[in-house]
């Protein structure tokens, strides 16, 4: 479970890098938030704080980007 959580967190972080660019904020809905939530769930099941922290940070940054871009009101 720990490995799955880290994989999902890293994939979400890579998607976040692309989603921070202008005109690519919509990628946060598809390629960032779902894997970050899955990484958070798997990290909670494995009780791994590092993987959970990575997923939470990525999800918060993606949500902040969506709020600033008008994707979440």
Could you characterize what this model shows?
The protein starts with a helix and ends with a helix. Helix 1 runs parallel beside helix 3 (49-69). The protein is 81% helix and 0% strand. It is built from 3 helices and no strands. The chain is mostly helical.
Class by SSE composition = mainly alpha
Whole-number mean pLDDT: 91
* Percentage of residues assigned to helices: over 70%
Q: What portion of the residues fall into strands of 2 or more residues?
A: under 5%
Count of DSSP helices? Answer: 3
Radius of gyration: 12 Å
Shape: elongated
CA distance, first residue to last residue: 34 Å
| Number of E-state strands | 0
| Main sheet: strands, sense, barrel | none
Low-pLDDT ranges: none
Order of helices and strands: HHH
Helix-strand layout with pairing:
Blueprint: H1 2-19, H2 27-46, H3 49-69
Helix pairs in contact: 1-2, 1-3, 2-3
Keyword list:
73 residues, mainly alpha, 3 helices, elongated
Provide a brief overview of the structure:
This protein is mostly helical and 73 residues long.
